Amino acid sequence: MELTSQLALSDREVLDYMLSNRDFTAEELINFNTHSFHNLQYIMYNNPNISNLRFFTSNKYAREIWPIIYNERRIAGENWANEFYAQPEAVWWTIYRGPEELRGSTEGERQDYLNFASLVREVKYPLDQHLALLQVNMRLDVFFSNIYGNLQEASTQLLAIDRNSHLYYNGTSSFYEKIAPEDIRSEFALHTQGSEGNFQFTHEGIPYLCLYTSIERLDSKLLSVVSLESSYNDMNKTRLAIGGATLMLVLILSLITYKLLSVILKRLHLLRDSMKKVRQGDFNVEIPQLGGDEVGELGNHIRQMLSKINELIAEAVNKQASSKEAELNSLKNQIDAHFLYNTLENLKMLAEIEGQLVISDTLTSLGAMLRYNLHWTTHYVRLYEEIQHIQNYIAVMNIRYGGKLELRLDVRQQYRQQEILKMSLQPIVENALKYGMNAPGLRKRGLMIVIHAYEQDDFMYIEIRDNGAGISAERLYNINLALQLDPAAAAMYAPPVNGDSAYDTSGSGIGLRNVHLRIQLHYGKTSGLWLESVEGEYTKVTIKVPYLILSGGLAE
């Protein structure tokens, strides 16, 4: 309805027609009727729900053109017109009863009076001057299709009450045989509060529920009245049925609960007796299978717990026996180590007496290596202690390689106090000798091993580089990858080839991977080692550990 009024007012020629201050010629009237008036008819008939589109003008020069343009005197005395003039709103909604056509009834013709929902808009043109009234009407049975339709339930009805307390409803419904619409209006007048809400009332012993809400534009209320008679009757029947069913269910559940409790308590008593025996020290109690429910699961857990307790007792006994045996072995090894040191010292003195200085020096280095290997008071040493061990190792191995091994140190004095894991450099140097001397001609010119240390970003980097055979690119990739994986996965990526393994343990007992894992175990995942190599040129192993000077940052 609002869209229809806006479209009608958008035609400037219609406004000019009602504003004219002269009589129109026949040709002008024909043109207006052909174009502008035809557009108004199209707007009205385009929406079949619209009953009327009317302009009421007081201009004596604007001729009436039915059924759209009328003179304003035709609505003089109409209630809806008087109410509109009495209020200042430019757009006004109302419900009124009036004729479907304003042309009046002729002799022998009946005029029907119907209820309409009406939109009234004042037309001011130009310069905010009153020009006409625009009225858009819709039959109330179309406007309130849910009220006047036949699809409502027999126990529920919709009604509307306008600003003048006029009631609109479907009079053909059987709902009003038990309560009159006037009674509903009376109850509504007594209970209504605010723009929306609900209330209950009783009429002739039948309870009703009324819900209401506002239709703001029409200044009306929409009511939904529900008869609770059938609901209350059904509720009573349902209550009785539920009460009987509940009583029966309680009896059945009581019987089932009694049976279940007798079975469950019997098995719980069995578990209680078994746990009493365990508390008295009998850990060999046999607990039978008690089913697959919670009690049976509890019995199974107790059975597993007793089995675990027996295993732990046996393990504790074995550990105690192993501890005693380890103490004896430790004492024996200590005696054997002192015997070995004394024997090496005697051999060294004999070599010096005989003038065999090379043998004497080699025995000195070998004795120092043995003391370093066998004396484990802590996992951590200073870097210079590990370097001294490497020097002794090179001195001993030079006997085998005829003095072809050379060790160079590029370690600043203050870095020699750096903390490092014991036996972390020797396996790397051992691998350098084992695989680096395989290059053709290297045994003639000799193998050089360089140890270089530097500090960067709070980490100490120690590089062990040799000029040996080197490693192929594919093999180097597999080795570095294997250093990062768990042992099972590392075996897939870097399998030993003819004894050549990235974490070979055949020589020193501690391979590269073991060194890498020890470093990460003690210093975290940000530490470790990795390899760089060019086949036929060099191999470099870099160790990364946190920068920690054990002497407090001062060189000795």
Can you tell me the CATH class of the largest domain? Answer: Alpha Beta
**Whole-Å distance between the termini?**
101 Å
Percent helix, as a range, is 40-55%
Number of helices: 17
Strand content: 15-25%
Unreliable stretches:
494-510
Structural class: alpha+beta
Count of individual beta strands: 17
Instruction: Domain count, please report it.
Output: 3
CATH architecture of the largest domain: 2-Layer Sandwich
What fold name goes in the CATH topology slot of the largest domain? Heat Shock Protein 90
Mean pLDDT: 83
What is the quaternary state of this protein? Answer: single chain
Summarize the main sheet: 5 strands, mixed
- Radius of gyration, in Å, reads 55 Å
Q: Which geometry do the CA atoms define?
A: elongated
